[in-house]
Design goal:
Length: 214
């Protein structure tokens, strides 16, 4: 049985917009593992409850299940050590974890202000009330207030990338990925999976790339 990945979807099944789920799909592709995705919506908590998860990604591999993109990456390297590794060793894994934490805390909040209203507009109707309530509680303001200044939010997002520009500048492939991810997020993940795959082939170094996407 192929690995299953529960993947956050918008109103249409083929619109997948979660960067956390993208990370897992890229990891699975890198390791050459067959998998199928299962479109999942935010209020479908009962679907993933058997796996002790409340959000996606959730990976189901036979009798094993893992949730959280970072935990899934660690699981894949542990269970499939003969496949290409996601991390080159302890040092690479530690560096990737640092970038993971920095991205979640510094980059994601900045880009969310750019795309929050676009995301809301593309959600299935059944998810909209939950999305509004949970995000407004998290940020202490309405969605409209959060997304009121998209141009200013783009500038803030670019500023959030300043600490890594000197590191990434010698690696054009990584800038290809960042540009791809930024454009995809700003379009709320409207690209088809095939188009994403063509872009991702341009990324040459997983050990460095994993720090930004895992």
């Amino acid at each position: 049985m192929a690995i299953q990945l529960y993947d956050l979807a918008a109103a249409e099944d083929d619109r997948r917009y979660s960067p956390y789920c993208w990370r897992v799909k890229m990891a699975l592709k890198h390791k050459g593992l067959d998998f199928e995705t299962v479109p999942w919506r935010m209020i479908e908590k009962d679907v993933i409850a058997p796996y002790k998860a409340t959000t996606v990604p959730v990976l189901v591999d036979g009798s094993n299940s893992v949730y959280d993109s970072w935990a899934i990456a660690l699981y894949l390297d542990e269970v499939y050590p003969s496949r290409p590794r996601l991390f080159g060793g302890t040092e690479a894994r530690t560096l990737a974890d640092f970038f993971n934490q920095w991205t979640v805390k510094s980059v994601h909040p900045a880009i969310l202000r750019v795309i929050i209203l676009d995301i809301f507009g593309k959600l299935p109707e059944k998810d909209k009330a939950y999305f509004r309530q949970s995000r407004e509680k998290r940020f202490g303001m309405t969605l409209e207030q959060l997304g009121a200044d998209p141009k200013g939010a783009v500038a803030a997002f670019r500023g959030a990338l300043d600490p890594v520009r000197p590191v990434l500048w010698p690696w054009p492939a990584l800038w290809v990925f960042i540009e791809f991810q930024s454009r995809s997020l700003s379009r709320m993940g409207l690209s088809k999976n095939r188009g994403r795959a063509r872009q991702l082939k341009k990324a040459q170094s997983w050990n460095l790339l994993s720090g930004l996407i895992v």
